[in-house]
Give the backbone structure.
Amino acid sequence: MSSSAGRAAVSKTAGRRFDPCLTCQIIIIMTKWLTNIRKFINGTIEELYKCTWPTRQELFRSTIIVLVAIVAVTVFVGLVDFGSQRIIRFLTGF
């Protein structure tokens, strides 16, 4: 039967605060950082599997709607610009 009573501490740092070297601290920080990135990526992939993706036909319809809306807004802004230009030229005499 062995007992550690009455024996001196084996560690040279016993009872003192031990600060790891700078390289060890950097490795610990990088390991935690990489672990967090891995968790984020895995969570993102899990969420992507839960998504319902549009069919090709739904995607085509949505694309057409967006393109029509872009053309309509472009025409509207162009007409407002042209009209305001004419009004300003009339009022200022240029």
